[in-house]
């Protein structure tokens, strides 16, 4: 009988970090991306993928540890898919993120660059998120030591409430304490799980699509308001009322409690209608003096404090005097446009998601901002020559696209309109660099400011100012 051979182990010294938070080294001149290691570690790597010029593998044995390593603060580190850089000091994380921005802009952008500013780090490196989503599952992920201890004995499947295991769609890690968000997030999660287990409430089975409890979404604002949305596979009013009354009694800090009935095979709620059981159905968040209404389906920067700093950088680089027409492309709920509005003559926001545009109009009204207008539709379809003619030629374009970057047609439209100044906010410096290469036809990069929004992860934001040549 043929048995599949395990990939050979190779001993390497980890040299550096690559994009996506993976360490890298070389074996026989081939670049190897290594999971679970940091620069300075000496490890045995088990290769899982081997191409002509590169490979992927996992550190399975450590001969010696890097002097830069620190002890991770979370009990779920190494199993949970988040916070993969906890074993690195935060100063080192910022160093590698800065380097990633520099390398992407130089290697992919291939444009002339000014001196890149030092990255702006977070003052709070834990409990910085304002939103988390947990999953209920009747298939708890079993840790390797649990399986080893059981040997050949059968292990009963257990219910879990936590995060999906990376690359395993039907397994969920049972999370006791998550350090990404301030309390009462853990109190809410643990109270619901304990009550559900005590009362034999069914956790969702993602393989066969049955069960009552599906997902739990918690938002905590800097104003102190707390929103909880529990998603159910079907409605059971009697059990729902009992669960919610118990939760509100145990965690009285909840200001808004909602529920969403989701009979679909996916967990998205954007085509569903959350209903309020307790409270006004939304919370209020603040950025500087502005208020923002956050509903259960609203998009908002998930790190409020650092999001405020990101918007301050954007406003500074927009160089507004009060006379400019500003186009806010991929505007979401209008947060950037509204944030800079007191220094602009007119704000025009464009966003694909209709619900986000509805929120943008409400947020403008909430802050008595009358010189901002918002339009729903694909940016490349909305931003026609006729649209610019109707609403005014842009003096400043602020663009904050998704990770895929801007559509090439939009880049061409920006080139065509020849706005004097463009501020490009990006959550993916690689696609940003690609777009800068196209914009180089008419624009020069005049300022680059990296901003770290998510400590202990490889994710990074980067803000670039471009000025029209001549």
Automatic annotation (TrEMBL):
UniProt keywords (A-Z) are: Methyltransferase, S-adenosyl-L-methionine, Transferase
Q: Which PROSITE patterns match?
A: SAM_MT_RNA_M5U, TRAM, TRMA_1, TRMA_2
Which residue intervals define the domain TRAM in the entry?
1-61
Q: Name one Pfam family in it.
A: TRAM
Q: Which residues form a coiled coil?
A: none
GO MF terms, alphabetically ordered: rRNA (uridine-C5-)-methyltransferase activity
Q: What is its EC number?
A: 2.1.1.-
Active site as annotated: 427
Tell me which SUPFAM superfamilies the record gives.
Answer: Nucleic acid-binding proteins, S-adenosyl-L-methionine-dependent methyltransferases
Which top-level enzyme class is recorded in the Swiss-Prot or TrEMBL entry? transferase
**Which annotated residues bind S-adenosyl-L-methionine?**
301, 330, 351, 400
What GO terms describe the biological role, i.e. biological process, of this protein?
rRNA base methylation
Q: Which NCBIfam families match?
A: rumA (TIGR00479)
UniProt lists the family membership as follows: Belongs to the class I-like SAM-binding methyltransferase superfamily. RNA M5U methyltransferase family.
What's the protein called, per UniProt?
23S rRNA m(5)U-1939 methyltransferase
